[in-house]
UniProtKB/TrEMBL annotation:
It is a multi-pass membrane protein. One of its GO terms (biological process) is D-methionine transmembrane transport. This is Methionine ABC transporter permease. PANTHER family: ABC TRANSPORTER PERMEASE, D-METHIONINE TRANSPORT SYSTEM PERMEASE PROTEIN METI-RELATED. It comes from Enterococcus canintestini.
Length: 219
């Protein structure tokens, strides 16, 4: 037990910091880029705006292609690319890039779904009043879809937490690396238990906060 406590004291803070860094970077990039792609998919499929079926199908195919890859396969596939730009792909930064690439198509579909749920009558009224696409996006689409987008962000963060644990299998840092190096290879079962409990608590807090925020913005 004393050895387990020492392991947690020496390595858990850095593992949590690495995980927070990876998930935060991937969430920011995934939400911004994925949100824009989701908006593009929505506008390209809607006859009220700049409908472009070819563009919608092409972008949708690329999004689905990336989403169809299990994260571990995507991670291994990206290692040569990460090695070329970073030198050492087995770092939290390398993992953050991989997580970002996984988050972008995931959130793109979530955002597209949230935009699709905006009342069509409201959009038609805005178009009839002569509002530009930019005005409708900023003044109608985003505010009306905000609760769904918030829930999508929460879902993305929770998914990324799970993915971030997987990067430990290649030694890229974070709580997954700690769990494998000490909980699995050194048979420190208590380390695994603590990490599992931490993940459960963190996920519950994120879900609770996201639900409250989504309810606040629900009209």
């Amino acid at each position: 037990m004393a050895e387990t406590i020492e392991i947690l004291q020496n390595h858990l803070p850095k593992a949590l910091a690495d995980t927070f860094y990876m998930v935060a970077v991937a969430t920011i990039i995934g939400v911004i880029v994925g949100g824009l792609i989701g908006l593009l998919l929505f506008l390209a499929s809607n006859s009220l705006f700049h409908q472009n079926i070819i563009l919608h199908k092409t972008v949708g195919f690329l999004v689905n292609a990336i989403r169809s890859l299990p994260f571990l396969i995507l991670l291994v596939t990206l290692i040569p690319f990460l090695a070329a730009i970073l030198g050492d792909p087995y770092t939290p930064t390398g993992a953050a890039i991989s997580l970002s690439i996984a988050a972008i198509p995931f959130f793109a579909r979530v955002a597209e779904g949230a935009f699709t749920e905006v009342d069509a009558g409201t959009l038609e009224a805005s178009v009839a009043q002569g509002a530009t696409t930019k005005q409708i996006v900023v003044g109608v689409i985003i505010p009306e879809s905000l609760p769904g987008l918030i829930r999508g962000v929460v879902l993305t963060i929770i998914s990324l937490l799970g993915y971030s644990a997987m990067v430990g299998t290649i030694g890229a840092g974070g709580i997954g690396d700690l769990a494998i190096q000490y909980g699995y290879y050194r048979y420190e079962t208590f380390v695994l238990i603590i990490i599992i409990l931490l993940l459960v608590v963190v996920v519950q807090l994120i879900q609770w906060g996201g639900d409250r925020l989504a309810q606040y913005f629900t009209r």
